[in-house]
Amino acid sequence: MTFAISKDTYLPPNAEQRDIATLATIDLQGLVTRDPAEITKLLDACVTHGFFYLNLQTSDAGRQILEAEQNAYRFMEEYFSRPLETKMKDDRGHPTHGFKPIGKYTGVTDNSRDCYETLKVARAEILAKAPQLSPSIKENSALFDTFISLSHFITQTLLSSLSDALRLTGSSRLEEFHRDGELTNTTLVLLHYPKHEDDTNIGHNKHTDIGSITLLFAEQWGLQVFTPEEKRWAWVQPRPHGHATINVGDSLRFLSGKTLYSCLHRVIPVDGKSQKEDRYSIAYFLRPENNAIYEDADGQKVTAGKWHDDKYVMFGEPHKKQEESKVLTGGMEQILV
Ligand SMILES: O=C(O)CCC(=O)C(=O)O
Ligand SMILES: [Fe+2]
User: Fold this and answer.
1) How much distance in Å is there from the Cα of 75 to the middle of ligand 1?
2) Does residue 2 sit within a domain?
3) Is residue 237 assigned to a domain?
4) Looking at ligand 1, which atom is closest to the CA of residue 283?
5) Of 24, 188, 228, 334, which residue has the fewest beta carbons closer than 10 angstroms?
6) ipTM over cut 0.95
7) Does ligand 1 have an atom closer than 6 angstroms to the CB of 223?
8) What domain of life (predicted)?
9) In terms of Cα–Cα distance, which of 189, 296, 209 is closest to 249?
10) Assigned domain for 3 exists
11) Total count of domains within the chain
């Protein structure tokens, strides 16, 4: 699956260049080598937008994950083309494990449901070679081991770079809330937005991510961010074969005392109406230890585990209920609009 997308030659229908988000590009290798200028640039991107591109071509881990990304798409095309009843055998009714069918959560437009299915693979279960993992994941364990360990290395590199940039020391460093071996909801999510004609199922509703750092791969248009400068939706340009998109989630915003910016985003069909082609994306959600405590959007003390669980309940609620609470958008919508 290769799409020749270039900034100048291809835009979503009816979109102009000004409808494309202007995001910084950070170089992974610069962070691996602790280049002070790159670390400052990272902090700036996380304070202003909470969204940026990560250039993966200059580092070993980066090049390896780009290769694994292509293998993951091949797996996804085969997996998601299976009949629904086969995939439902992998549905564990759990937000961080197994299959989720389309329509479980609220969609983008009024009265719509979501238009994406997912397969989720928790890091803890991969490390433990858990018997509950679905057969298709066990059969492809090399792919998932590689993808998750590289994603973890990359997101931990971002985390420790941010601790450096914020001059955090000792137990206040961000890594101290993400210690290995502690219970966490960190998970890899494979997403498929099937080609779909009607408008009862539309996209992935606006939200901020629950966790700390999201490492996202997508070769196709669909993702939009709500830009803090212009306060409007803008497209995130796919940059296949070289870059991932990174965003800060609520937990990192809360852990940083709301210094870092958790950006509002959503996924819609490129023409705004129906999904004209199958879209695939891959997201690694680095989340804090479940017992980590921070102050949420309302200034209430909450554990990262509870924030995660509350957000998933909110994903399924009707739009009216979502609008009445700060959970879906982590309080960012109230700040932005
Ligand atoms: O599919 C995408 O591009 C983004 C998905 C997303 O925002 C999410 O799952 O949190
Ligand atoms: Fe998201």
Assistant:
1) 18
2) no
3) yes
4) 9
5) 334
6) yes
7) yes
8) Eukaryota
9) 209
10) no
11) 1
Q: How many angstroms separate the alpha carbon of residue 169 from the centre of ligand 1?
A: 32
- Residue 204 Cβ inside 6 Å of ligand 1? The answer reads yes
Residue 265, ligand 1, Cβ within 6 A: yes
C-beta of residue 186 within 8 angstroms of C-beta of residue 211: yes
Q: Ligand 1 in contact with 262 (CB < 6 A)?
A: no
Sequential pLDDT tens for the chain (337 residues): 434 444 444 788 889 999 999 999 999 999 999 999 999 999 999 999 999 999 999 999 999 999 999 999 999 999 999 999 999 999 999 999 999 999 999 999 998 999 999 999 999 999 999 999 999 999 999 999 999 999 999 999 999 999 999 999 999 999 999 999 999 999 999 999 999 888 899 999 999 999 999 999 999 999 999 999 899 999 999 999 899 999 999 999 999 999 999 999 999 999 888 888 999 999 999 999 999 999 999 999 999 999 999 999 999 999 999 999 999 999 888 777 6
Please identify every residue whose CB atom is under 5 Å from ligand 2, which is an ion: 209
User: Best substitution site from 115, 204, 308 to test ligand 1's pocket, by max atoms within 8 Å of Cβ?
Assistant: 204
Among protein residues, the one whose CA lies closest to atom 7 of ligand 1: 266
Task: Show the domain range for 332.
Answer: 17-336
Q: Specify the CATH number for the domain of residue 82.
A: 2.60.120.330
**Ligand 1 atom, smallest distance to 116 CA:** 1
Question: Is 283 close to ligand 1, i.e. is its CB under 6 Å away?
Answer: yes
Probe residue for ligand 1, chosen from 115, 192, 225, 267 as the CB with the greatest number of ligand atoms within 8 Å:
267
Residue with tokens 């409808």: 19
The answer as to whether 59 is a domain residue is yes
- Extended beta strands in the chain, E state: 25-27, 51-55, 98-100, 117-122, 187-193, 204-207, 213-218, 223-226, 233-235, 243-248, 265-267, 279-286, 293-295, 301-303
- The verdict on the CB of residue 267 being under 6 Å from ligand 1 is yes
Nearest to 322 by CA among 101, 117, 111: 111
